[in-house]
Structure formats: C-alpha cells, structure tokens
Amino acid sequence: MNQAALDALKTYYGYDRFRSGQERLIEAILDGRDVLGIMPTGAGKSICYQIPALLLDGVTLVVSPLISLMKDQVDSLNAAGIEATYINSSLSASETSKRMRDVAAGHYKLLYIAPERLESEQFRAMIRRLEVPLIAVDEAHCVSQWGHDFRPSYMTIVRLLQDIEPRPVMAAFTATATDVVKDDIVERLKLRDPARVTTGYARSNLAMSVVRGADKRDFVERYIREHSDQAGIIYASTRREVESVYSFVRGLGVPVGKYHAGLSEEERAETQEAFQRDDLQIIVATNAFGMGIDKSNVRYVIHNNMPKNLEAYYQEAGRAGRDGDPGECVLLFSAQDVVTQKFFIEQSEADEERKRNDYRLLNDMVQYSHTGDCLQLAIVRYFGEENGQACGTCGNCTDTRESKDVTEEAKFIFACISEMKQRFGVTLTAKVLRGANDAKIKQFNFDRLRSYGRLKHMAEKPLVQLIHALVADGYLRMSDTAYPVVQLMEPVLAVMRGEELVYQKVEPDTPPASRSRSRGSGSSAPVANVELFNALRQLRKQIADSEGLPPFVIFHDATLREMCEAMPESEREMRSVKGVGAAKYEKYGLAFLQLIQEYR
C-alpha cells in the first residue's frame, strides 16, 4: 500500500490500517484509474476520495446531493486538520464569491458542490482555471434512472469533463446498487474501464426484523420506552403520517423532531442540526431526510410504513449503526402500505417502462416483508451476492417459534390459482378459498370451482399472509403490473406430486417489541466504564456546542469507548486510540486526557 496514504490515514484520521476495499480504491485513484465503489453505509466511502485528494496536486471536486451532508463532511475534515469547503445555495452571493476566490487561490484541497451548481456558467468558468485531478461523485445511484432516487441534476456532472484538461479521474460511490444500476452509473458518468469494488452488502452489526399486523402506535411507544437512552429515526411514507407519528411521540414526553418537504428549509435545517448535536433523540421523517447523514450513533431505524423498494429501504435502514456498534432496523408492515406505494407509482409522471420497473421493485419489497429466510441474506441476494451466510441476529434467525406443516393449505392455494387461470390477485384468490359470497366471484363463476371454500376455516388475513409467504419462498410470483396477479412457479410441481413439504411459522402471540430487547439486538456495544463514558460524552457535547459542531465530529462513540478501555496516561497513549489523529489531539486530546486522569 502507498506509504503516503497510510501516513495520511494515521495523521488525519487516527487509524493504522484501511478497511476492506479502501486500499484497492485508493490505489486505483492514485494510479489514475476511474473507480466505482459500492460500500455499505459506515464502511468509509469518503476516505476513499479524501486520502487521494490530500496526496494529489490541485483541488478535488466532490459532488454531493444535500447541503447538510456537505456541511457535516466539511466540519469533520476541518476538525481533522484538512482544508475543505463547500459552495451551495445556503451561502450569500458575497460568501460564494469569496469562497470561489479562495478555491482559485489554492486554499483548499476539497471543494463540495451540489450537482445544480454545475449549471452556473460562472462556476464552470472558474473550474476551467483550476487544477482538478479528481472528481468524486457521492450517492452515485442518483444518476441512474433505474435507481431508487434518480435526480436529473446528476446528469450535468459529465459536462465537467468537457471543461477540465487534462481529464480528471472520476470516482463514483454509493452504498447500494443492483447490477443494472452499476452499469447505468458507469455509462452515464462516462467512467473509463473503472476499477469496480464491492465490499459486500451485509451489515453484521445490524439486526433486521419485520413486524406484520402489529398496532403500530403501541409498538412504537413500547420500543421507545425500551430504548429510552438511544437515538433513532422513524420513517413514514407521507407528510401527514409524519405529522401524526410526530405528535404521538411528542405526547410521550420524548425529545423529537419532524422532517418532511412540506416544512421550510430553515425548519428542516434546524431540526437536522438539533438531531446531529444530540439535542433531539428521535427524528420522524419522510425519505426526504437522511441521505448520507453522518450521525454515527443512531441505534435504531423504524419504518412505520413500507418503502417503495429494497434499495430505498436498505439505504434508510443503514443509517443505524454507522459507527459499527449494534443497531436495529424494524419494518412495520401493513397491507395499506402497498396501496400507498402503488398510488405513488400511478401518480408519477414516469413512462410505462419505468412504472413497470417500479411495480417489480415494489413486489420485491413485499416479498422481503414476508420471507421466512434470514433477512440479511434476502437483502444481499437481492443485490447479487449468492454466497452469504445467515446473520444469526435478524428477526427470522432468532425466531424460536415452531414451523407448521402447511402443505395441504399450499396445495389448495396452488390448485385455486391454476383453476383461476393465473389471472387474478392475492385478495380474490383468498376470497375464493374462503368461500366468500362476493359479486366478483359470482361474475366469474368462481363459486363453481373445486377450490371454492376449501380453506374456509382460515381467516382472510392469515390466508393472505400465507400466499405472500409462498411468493417469498419462490413457489409463486407476482406480475409487474399495477394490479399484480399471482402466478405459479416451477417448485409447485414437487409439492403437488407429494415430493416436497411446505412449512411456515405461525404468527407470534408475544408482541415483537418485547422480544427485541431479550435478544439484545438493539442494545449498544458494551462499555468498560459507563460512568467515565458518560463523562467523556458530556465533555464532548460541551466542546461541540462551543464550536457549533455535531458531537460525532469531535470523536465517535467508538473512540470514547476505547478511551475507557485503554485509560491513556500520556499523549503517546492517547494518540494510539483509534480515531485520535494529530490534528484532533492538538485541538481536543488534552481535555479528554485530563478528564481521564482526574477520573483515575
């Protein structure tokens, strides 16, 4: 590995070695090669372009989609002793001009910009006069129309290549991308034979779970009570639902904020900043909140409503446990969520091809919500990894309920779908099997089918859930249409011939929120000395408030925890703690060292 890169890592970031994938990406960039890095949230994507930026002549441009993300990144870089700045719409015209002059004068190594800035001819004229060795594109999935968050403004990025001579290295990064999205990123950003590095999608520190049919308000209240000392995000699908959940949580007496596009930019900025600074414990938000959020100590993410696809879900859920400590990701599923997401697709201005793709992605999300397999495995397989292992911590892996033989019920379901010519949806199939007195059933003469009423002993809700589970297990599939029909798959043959049995676990009697604490998946990592750890956190908060920074910019929780374990007595011992670089020791190290000595 490049020794200069290792020296920079130790000096500015306080670490002795790179994480998986970082070395290959950094070496490729320093060799002048384009790169595409797919690294899960918390895997250290930003270091992959920040280290090369320090070692290359000139200023590196970083294209980032959110103002708050730019500020967090620049604050962290400046705290580490790295000269960086941003130009975006939050600045006045005079401040923008001053920063552009400072950039032109070579005062910065990294310049963060929004893609919309590239539409400014004045900005592009400045860029033509600069030495730009590297362009880093963060959240690169936004450039793909097949991704979950397509932003047309990202299409302007490639125009930069026409303005800069010699052509800079292009480096694209994102946390999640299917093979289709990866290829689209390469094509749309004009990456030249990029070094592709995917470090794996599994997040071993996250415990995933899906809760179906729960009283959502009751679940949220009990969960918050059980995790009262932890920071969390609750996602909702609409502004109205955000307002409703926010009012409910606020009524519990918990410090909480709300975030959605209906609020003013100032309100959103104030709420996010309060959350970053640990003044708010919980944020209730739509998916407008959180892309690239740098807050490291989010311990849980609850989805009050099912997102539109697995890419969006994993991006949002991945905001838990960025520091590597345990985190929990809970999806509260209800059938109404599917209706809501279909409405969004139907109301969109996308063409028919894009809508079909969106319906397919939504079906994948519903399938995930009903699978009995390891939830981590289901996610990594969705992204193309076939050789993963069961995580052992998700809701399905820790589910101790006994499996029930549902082969007979499955055969009746398969037979009914066949008799209905594979042309109808889950709900009507369930009604036929239950023998419902329904006008549509009589219209199609389905009351004359042999399958009619064969599962009348089952309530409609568990029967619908069983059909969805059979979809998730690969026996059935849903068509990629606005009104998906359920169809038979090849594994059905073995069941109908009596060569294979079908098992499903019954729904629990114990509320899932009560079980989550027992398996410990949502708890923080153990601390050697809780009293000292809390004192260090309090000192960090005081320093952060005095400097107008989020506490994690000073030191991450993991660094404070290692201080509690190592109990350093000198500058040398303090600087050996992971996360304590030279610049941070000069700024903050002595105060923390003195507090530890006083405690001793």
From TrEMBL:
GO biological process: DNA recombination; DNA repair; DNA replication; SOS response
Annotated ranges, domain Helicase ATP-binding: 26-195
Annotated Gene Ontology cellular component terms: bacterial nucleoid; cytoplasm; replisome
Transmembrane segments: none
The protein's required cofactors: Mg(2+); Zn(2+)
Chain positions covered by the region annotation Disordered: 506-525
GO MF annotations in UniProt: 3'-5' DNA helicase activity; ATP binding; DNA binding; four-way junction helicase activity; hydrolase activity; metal ion binding
Helicase C-terminal domain boundaries: 218-366
Biased amino acid composition, Low complexity: 512-525
Catalytic activity: Couples ATP hydrolysis with the unwinding of duplex DNA by translocating in the 3'-5' direction
Keywords, in A-Z order: ATP-binding, DNA damage, DNA recombination, DNA repair, DNA-binding, Helicase, Hydrolase, Isomerase, Metal-binding, Nucleotide-binding, Zinc
Limits of the HRDC domain: 526-600
Matching SMART domains: DEXDc, HELICc, HRDC, RQC
EC number: 5.6.2.4
Record-stated family: Belongs to the helicase family. RecQ subfamily.
NCBIfam families: recQ, recQ_fam
Annotated protein name in UniProt: DNA helicase RecQ
Organism: Cohnella phaseoli
